Amino acid sequence: MKNLTRAPGLLIAALWLHVVAPAAAADTLYNDLGGKEGVVAVVDQFLWNLADNKQVSHYFVETNLERFRDKLIEYVCQAAQGPCTYSGDSMERTHKHMGVTITDFNVTVESLILAMESRHINTGVQNRLLKALAVDYAKVVQE
Ligand code: HEM
């Protein structure tokens, strides 16, 4: 009898694990950025901001922008725990001989912040993306 009275509780627990737990697991930075559509919109605005900024736009004169955009979307998506696998070159290899300065890096970060602002992404979410990308600082900047 005791076991029978517990049964509804067990059923509810099983349902919770099945229905609620996967939703909780999907609570990622990627989703907070607005999923695929949000990541693409942020990257696109970021690229416009870079193109508009004379401090850094010269770096991209010979860049294949279509590839750069695709790889950057993958990279940001993966860094935000989204369902993507980055397939581009390593950060060291890509930026090694560019001579990127701290100022260039800061201007690039600012361009990304402005892109997120334009999408009305809140500061907490912005900071989580900046943190996820900041790990690459030493691979990009030549001090
Ligand atoms: C955390 C900071 C950064 C990240 C995560 C990042 C990420 C990337 C990624 C994913 C690519 C594509 C690589 C590929 O095509 O396989 C790339 C390319 C590139 N990045 Fe960065 N980047 C960062 C900072 C910078 C900065 C500060 C500059 C210069 C101001 C810069 C300049 C470039 C250029 C010029 C390319 C294209 C290279 C080419 O033409 O092949 N990046 N970056």
Tell me, briefly, the overall form.
Answer: elongated
Helical percentage: 55-70%
Give the full name of the CATH homologous superfamily: Globins
Overall number of structural domains:
1
**Average pLDDT figure:** 90
Structural class: mainly alpha
The CATH topology is what? Globin-like
Measured by DSSP, the beta-strand proportion falls in under 5%
Q: Which features does this protein show?
A:
143 residues; mainly alpha; Globin-like; 8 helices; elongated; binds protoporphyrin IX containing FE
How would you describe the overall organization of this protein?
The protein is mainly α and 143 residues long. 15% of the residues are buried. The chain is elongated. It has helices spanning 2-25, 29-32, 35-51, 65-79, 91-95, 102-118, 123-134, 137-140. It has eight helices and no strands. The longest helix has 24 residues, at 2-25. The protein has one domain: Orthogonal Bundle (Globin-like). The site of protoporphyrin IX containing FE has 20 residues, from helix 4, helix 5 and helix 6.
Q: How would you concisely characterize the structure shown here?
A:
69% of the residues lie in helices and 0% in strands. The protein has a single domain (28-140), classed as Globin-like (Orthogonal Bundle). It has helices at residues 2-25, 29-32, 35-51, 65-79, 91-95, 102-118, 123-134, 137-140.
